[in-house]
Recover the amino acids of this structure.
């Protein structure tokens, strides 16, 4: 009997969805082959429609810190599915997760659940504008904050900080409300504050930028950002959609010791279900409807299945000291890859932080800005990605996406994966 292939499914998908996908990076664009169609996932593994098993380092782009189908989360999800799917009314499930977060992360005095990271960011910006009476938002080149109109911008020409839209369909007037500056450049940052400071409602930053490679910032730079916000009366928003509950229980707030005004979450907070969250200082969050006049709502907000999956995931991570475990495993894993590359004379490097890693070409200095990313990153990655795929390793299908290690990636699986990646690179 004929077995369906990824190639055939992709041809069908191209007829019904733009590029055959429902989020662009899934499409394997530029990789000269059809994306792999999967039918099953468990632990550290994905199974394709061809019945090939892959060790998965994409993990749905970050949410699955326990791996696919974690048994404890699965049980809670099953229980919730048998109890209720959505209420559209007050219930105990979001209350429990909200209480757990506010008591565990003291800077989250009050919060609101939404259904995605994009929504969380969009809502936090609205609060910041309402609170300051200002319109402009400052973002950094190389940080991603979801597909918010205001934030799909790149550096424009002319005055330092001027932005142009990076997507069609965004009015120039909307892009003009955003100011863009490079990461790791205090001087430019100062200049931008000099030009626009009194109009900047909020500065939004990924404190661990991990959406355009892994651009680890210095503590000094992040401190400077916070200091200039304070000085200019602009709010500081940490976008922790990717770093939150990934680098540690309290995320980058804990790692940097910087207290932002607002923080956005997504990904891990829903344990694999669509959940986002924004929150922070009480006086700011009290501005949100119905207690205040910043309107924000959602039919499926605080969906109980996501609430239970999220809480179970977070409690399990806490119980297992998961962040420490992952940090050690990822150190060992990336060290093994580095040693293998060195031994075989493969000119590639691995950056990592907590359980995030990113493979890139050699660089004399740490890569902290998008300009510092080696120019051949696309071509380098393509070769490595396709060979790795052959050897049963599924990396996120894009040169600028990071890899994620989950609790389901045991030392044995990681040893095997490291060897496969080394062989693939050769
Ligand atoms: C993934 C991500 C988003 C967008 O979240 P979605 O759930 O995809 O809308 C926003 N900010 C950061 C830092 C992210 O990593």
């Amino acid at each position: 009997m004929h077995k369906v292939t990824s190639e055939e499914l992709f041809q069908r998908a191209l007829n019904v969805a733009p590029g055959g996908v429902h989020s662009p990076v899934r499409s394997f664009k530029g990789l000269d082959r059809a994306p792999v169609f999967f039918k099953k996932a468990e632990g550290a593994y994905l199974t394709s429609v061809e019945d090939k098993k892959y060790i998965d380092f994409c993990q749905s782009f970050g949410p699955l810190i326990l791996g696919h189908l974690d048994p404890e989360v699965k049980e809670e999800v099953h229980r919730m599915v048998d109890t209720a799917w959505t209420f559209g009314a007050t219930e105990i499930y979001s209350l429990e997760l909200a209480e757990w977060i506010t008591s565990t992360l003291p800077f989250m005095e009050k919060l609101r659940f939404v259904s995605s990271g994009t929504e969380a960011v969009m809502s936090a910006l609205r609060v910041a504008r309402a609170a300051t009476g200002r319109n402009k938002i400052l973002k950094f080149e190389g940080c991603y904050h979801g597909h918010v109109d205001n934030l799909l911008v790149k550096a424009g020409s002319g005055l330092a900080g001027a932005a142009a839209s990076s997507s069609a369909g965004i009015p120039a007037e909307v892009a003009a409300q955003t100011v863009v500056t490079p990461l790791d450049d205090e001087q430019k940052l100062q200049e931008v504050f000099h030009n626009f400071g009194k109009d900047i409602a909020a500065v939004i930053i990924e404190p661990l930028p991990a959406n355009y490679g892994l651009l680890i910032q210095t503590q000094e730079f992040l401190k400077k950002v916070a200091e200039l916000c304070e000085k200019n009366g602009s709010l500081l928003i940490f976008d922790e959609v990717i770093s939150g509950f990934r680098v540690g229980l309290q995320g980058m707030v804990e790692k940097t010791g910087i207290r932002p005004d607002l923080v956005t979450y997504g990904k891990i907070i829903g344990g694999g279900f669509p959940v986002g969250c924004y929150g922070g200082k009480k006086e700011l969050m009290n501005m949100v409807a119905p207690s205040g006049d910043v309107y924000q709502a959602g039919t499926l907000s605080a969906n109980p299945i996501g609430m239970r999956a999220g809480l179970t995931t977070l409690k399990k991570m806490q119980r297992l000291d998961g962040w420490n475990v992952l940090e050690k495993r990822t150190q060992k894993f990336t060290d093994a890859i580095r040693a293998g590359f060195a031994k075989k004379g493969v000119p590639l490097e691995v950056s990592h932080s907590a359980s995030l890693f990113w493979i890139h070409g050699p660089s004399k200095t740490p890569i902290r800005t998008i300009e510092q990313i080696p120019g051949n990153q696309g071509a380098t990655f393509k070769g490595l990605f396709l060979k790795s795929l052959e050897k049963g390793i599924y990396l996120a299908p894009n040169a600028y996406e990071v890899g994620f290690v989950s609790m389901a990636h045991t030392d044995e699986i990681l040893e095997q994966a490291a060897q496969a990646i080394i062989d693939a690179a050769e």
